[in-house]
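Side project, low priority. Logging it here so it doesn't get lost.
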Amino acid sequence: QDLNLRPSGYEPDELPSCSTPRRCRESTVQATRHSRNPPPTRPDHMAIFSRKNRQPDPVLGAIDDLMAFSAQALEVSREESRVASERLTLLEELVARYGAALDEEKAVTRATAEKLAVIEQRLVSMGNELSRQLHEMGDEIDRIAASSGEAVNTELVESLKASQVRL
């Protein structure tokens, strides 16, 4: 297999950089004239442009390193974004679950508050009724003490009043 992966030239097995397409008569004439004469030798100061003598450009190397680092950083950033996205999805699911549980607890709390309000209303009603009955009982004890005169034992009336106060 040919290790030169560049496309072949105009002639079979010709190196790609050796082929020059000719588009006009002047270039053909100049090429013919130069082919008869040997090519001029380059001065030494032009040797820096030769591919053989060219040193690797440190700026291009730094750019390559920077691009490789940027690619790695981009890959790390993508992975971190993926992980953050997964965590965000999990957190959203937790918030939804806790929100539903909170709504259930609110409903239970509301129902309990309504039941407590009913119980409180009953207790107030019972307290009012008990107070009214105790007041009536006191009135009855006073009537009994006043109507009988001396015939009613004062000790008995005092005992009834003490019982009323305890209630």
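Brief comment: The two ends are 116 Å apart (CA to CA).
Revisit when time allows.
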